[in-house]
Amino acid sequence: MSRVLLSASLAVSLLLWLPGTVFPIGHTMTDRSSRCSNLERSQPVAFDIPAMRAALADLTHWDVAGWEPPHIDQLQPEVFEARTQLNHRRYLGEYEARTNKVFVNLSCRCQAPDHPEALCQAVLFHELVHWGQHQSGADKGLSGQEQEQQALKYEIQYLETRLGVKDLYAPAPPTPADLPSHKTRVRLSRFQPRVSVQDSAGQRQWVWIITGAWSEVTSLKDYLGQAISHRGHWVGLEIFEVNPLNGSERVEAWWDAGYVRPDKTFPADPVYQGRWIRVK
Known about the structure:
Elements: E1 2-4, E2 14-17, H1 34-40, H2 49-60, E3 71-75, H3 77-84, E4 91-96, E5 101-105, H4 116-136, H5 144-161, E6 185-198, E7 204-216, E8 221-230, E9 233-242, E10 249-256, E11 276-278
Parallel strand pairs: 3-5
Antiparallel strand pairs: 1-4, 2-6, 4-5, 6-7, 7-8, 8-9, 9-10, 10-11
Helix pairs in contact: 4-5
């Protein structure tokens, strides 16, 4: 079963009651630079398989000692794609139960610039969970989606507890239906993957952004809006009227009462009070 990189854009068209925010929008695409290519073609990743099996036993409580270990193949992206018929930019690993083999796509080194080796270790551990599911027979009682969810859960635990890497993956995007209700009708056009912003202490924070544009036929006015979510909480909404001559003007904004900021500085220690205040 394949491990899917969790940083794909989500295209949605939604009709909600809300305004939106002014946080910058940007998306880092998969790095296919020459530097990345050189990394892919360097020596294979050094995996400590006995230590990873021990971590798997500790996290899952499976008795892995008596199981036949899988053969690990590290493949260049084009070889991985040709073998699996999968997009090498998104699929990083696969466990093949029939042959008891794990295939690791070496483009894993290009997906997380801050932690290239850690991500590759996580990819292999994810596939070892699938190996354990098959060896233990757990896969017979789990759907494909449930197997993936379990593998991802243990992969994240492995990253955090064994490698000391947190927040490598974006959290699940918030549900748009859970946004607080406001009076302005906004048609949202896309869900932006996580975006990196700096907080007031200079640390990086990851946020989700949803954006939209709409028009009011009766007033002949155009609007832009964004909404921002941080750590599973909707924390800000702002709405702008588009003026072709004078630029965009903010006409309305709402922020969590414990999250209000006078400028664009992100708070270092946010507090979520679940109570909105109108700042304009």
